[in-house]
Predict the 3D structure of the following.
Amino acid sequence: MEQGITQPSVKSQHLWWQNGVIYQIYPRSFQDSNGDGVGDLQGIISRLDYLQWLGVDCVWLSPIFSSPMADFGYDISDYQGIHPLFGTMEDFDELLGEVHNRGMKLLLDLVPNHTSDQHPWFLESRSSKDNPKRDWYIWHDGKADGGLPNNWLSVFGGHAWEWDEVTQQYYYHAFLKEQPDLNWRNPQVQEAMMNVMRFWLDKGIEGFRVDVMWHMVKDEQLRDNPPFPGSTFDPNDLIYDHYTPVYSTDQPEVHEIVHMMRAVTDEYDDRVLIGEIYLPIHKLVTYYGQDNKGAHLPFNFQLLTLPWDAPAIAMAIDEYEGALPAEGWPNWVLGNHDKPRISSRVGREQAKVAALLLLTLRGTPTIYYGDEIGMRDVAIPMNEIVDPQGLNMPDLNISRDPARTPMQWSGEINAGFSTHKPWLRLPFNSGRVNVEKQKGDMYSKLHFYRKLISLRKEHAALNVGSYRPIYADQQLISYVRESGNERFLIVLNLSHRPAYFKPRQESYSGTVILGTEIERIGMQVEDIITLGGDEGLLIRLS
Ligand code: GLC
């Protein structure tokens, strides 16, 4: 038997979040139950049977908490309250029960870096310089000449410092001015947020996805960020990406906070801590923490950010596998509410190849709602943009609305999402591209996803088995997954042209158990495999 670069493992030794599949729901857009055009918790409950049919193990909800909605729920005014748009705490309890009744898990979004400016903590903090909560946020005097404390910019455009007329100081906000950053160096802030975690964990949720984990601690001296190397830009542009945020993010002390969050998670059995982190691989993996006491899963966004190019992807997978700490569990994300949808980014033809990649790589996969039916970014007319990132920087074409549109359930009015005009428009083709249609079509993306998820569940090799790269060229990537006496070869053509799989040193023979073209299933392959453009194969090796 060949030796994988990671040891084959036995399924029973793994935890649910290692061999399961995570499904992200953007609650505003999943299902509306009360006819206001915005999705809600009862809506989600009514669609749980679908998720069970699809085969996902765990549902992560973007924020459902009290919020003025300046950033659609990522500006929280009460961490322990449910926004009335989504329902009540009773609805939440019912949802959690119904998720558990179906043998699934529920994760919530924890947004600890910042609160809403309407949060009572901030209202107190800004009320006077000597308020006991003053130090809960990042307040600073201007420079002697009255200038801003430093050159840090907001991710959503403009300066990251907001002047407070009443107390004559600036406060820092990495995102909107309505989202002031908490001061995580303050032990009271730490304690308060750990108690928020306990509140939800006590209720029985299985864990958290932690928002902007790498932002939580900033340089104590507030040093200026350097300009992005080589960029020639107008300093008046105030665009976040024109600087390298070496002092405003990813500070060494953040690991103490992550460690603290993990310790709270570990007060409970079998929970998971996931971190949202956009950093290069070598920095990302540090969030597993010393002795793996950091995040269980620092989200790996490479498939979202890399060009769809076979050598680049093959290299990134290997680099990631190589950089993981010994006990660090890998994970892969193909879509989320902040980035263009995969079908729009790589094109319809490659969507199934991308699914095959996501669901056969080693590590926990996260699926973004609607990607399983190939939903694309919806063209939102300029006067309908609601995302602050899109509104603040209209020329950059970076509104996130197109990837947040309502789930396309059926050919009914508003695609079965709502009886009311939805908060974001649907695409013109939702009568054709929807769950109902695809359920009735064995060749659809939906059935492809469902089959893949079930194969992954059935075969330990595909979820927890070892990973070994075989061969990559300008068009193809290929690898073997193995556990016990089961071996699978995955060959993916990331280009539109036909290609030959011709490994140099070994030869492979086996049976196709799933392909992007269903007709391939059951075919025997041996030695050189000829693939069509946009084709991917999952082969059980003999
Ligand atoms: C994260 C969220 C994003 C939000 C931002 C500020 O990146 O995913 O949607 O706007 O944090 O909270």
